[in-house]
Amino acid sequence: MTREAWLSEHPFLQALAHFHEQIESATASLPISGACAPNWDDYKEDYLAGVPLLMSLVPGIDYEVAGTVVAALVDRIASLTLPEGLAQECRALDAELKSGSDTRRRAVAWLLGAGEFASASPGMLRCLGWKALAWHLSPIAAAFGNWRDEALWMRNYCPTCGAPPAMAQLVGTDPGRLRLLSCGCCGTRWRYRRTGCPYCETHDDDRLAVVTVEGQGGLRIDYCASCSGYLKTYEGEGSERLLLADWTSLHLDILARDRGLKRAAGSLYEF
Predict the structure, then answer these.
(1) How much is the pTM?
(2) Contact call for residues 140 and 59 (beta carbons, < 8 A)
(3) Fewest CB within a 10 Å sphere: which of 47, 106, 184, 211?
(4) CA dist 267 → 163, 183, 211, 215, 252 (Å)
């Protein structure tokens, strides 16, 4: 499935797709982290205890440098031609982050769940902030992906940043089919139990159900009757970059909401 084919079938996503393309283009010129991957032997104890990489003190992420990268992306996006609503939010956030290095540092801490930050545009900060952080820290995240033993995590939150899963993917064929959870913040995918709710962690199959929607490229909605949480799930392989992007299936979030279901994971596209 190509982006062009998906958008031709879902023309209501065109404006968001254009904004996403602008973000991708601006992000590609941001600096990559100069930080080295941690000594994995030093981090292993935290990993086994369930401490996500970016929440561990071992990697020594420089919040000030990361804040500069976030501010650089916001500055570039704020200078583009955007719909007025988005433009106002970007300009307000740009001014906010230019008010001082401590502001940028606190903004990054907030993104990582390590502090409070009262932004005038929290949705835009979450969207652009995580796009910048994911890019900036990508070498460390890639090294982490090569190092970690998936079977030793199997938790219901991201091993890299600690966020709950935004989506899932079913890969392989039965009886050995695997379920991968997908982080909507940093983009990490990790193994989880084949069945069960990743939010309330119920294992009662009678409380779990599926909503299949025709013409959605293998996407479906898995939901839990115990907690009303739902998980958009890609049942297939080959179109991960498109169908696990979250923004490409926001219409399924609306469908789930109309059915009384709850999105337990945060979204980078709630402006």
Answers:
(1) 0.92
(2) yes
(3) 211
(4) 10, 10, 21, 23, 13
